[in-house]
Amino acid sequence: MIRLDDEAATLALGAAMAKRVRAGDVIALSGDLGTGKTTLARGLLAALGLDEEAPSPSFAIVQPYEPPEVSIPVAHVDLYRLDDPEDALELGLDDMRGDSVLLIEWPERLGDALWPDALRLAFERTADGARVLTATVPSSWEGRWPPT
Fold first, then answer.
1. Shortest CA distance to 91 belongs to which of 70, 67, 55, 60?
2. Beta bridge partner(s), residue 131
3. CATH tag, 2-140
4. What is the mean pLDDT of residues 106-131?
């Protein structure tokens, strides 16, 4: 578990992860509203070169970023509005994954379709207002997690 005391700590973790990501990676971000999923994504995207603050992709569902905007292609995905895992098939995430990093908020909306090699990060609030991050680390992330 990693304790994230504030927004700056969450942004910093995203920035550290940016040094470790590769095309084909899937990072699944779970947790209640306001627990830090989008903040972590913003830290990662900023460290990859995005100049402006990344918007939440809640309404677009998929927000792609391509070089030269970022150093490696990233698809920031928010599945909150999906009602059925079958709806995700229309998004073409399998195709995007080939040459991009997939940052997926609300991955539980995929049901059993989440890739088994996804890095799963679950955010929870603590009583004092901080966040605790629990990681489920697949073999594809061994040696890359936790980022330093």
1. 60
2. 4, 125
3. 3.40.50.300
4. 94
pLDDT in tens, 58-78: 888 999 999 999 999 999 999
Which residue is listed with tokens 């992709």?
57
Cα-Cα-Cα-Cα dihedral sign, residues 46, 71, 55, 12? negative
Cα–Cα dist 49/47, whole Å: 5
Q: Residue 77: enclosing H or E segment and its boundaries? A: strand 74-78
139 and 25 Cβ atoms separated by less than 8 Å:
no
74 - beta bridge partners?
65, 101
Pairing of strands 26-30, 101-105: parallel
Residue with tokens 């991050």: 133
Across the beta sheet with 119-125, the strand order is 2-4, 131-136, 119-125, 26-30, 101-105, 74-78, 62-65
pTM, two decimal places: 0.94
Which structure tokens are listed for 88? 């995700």
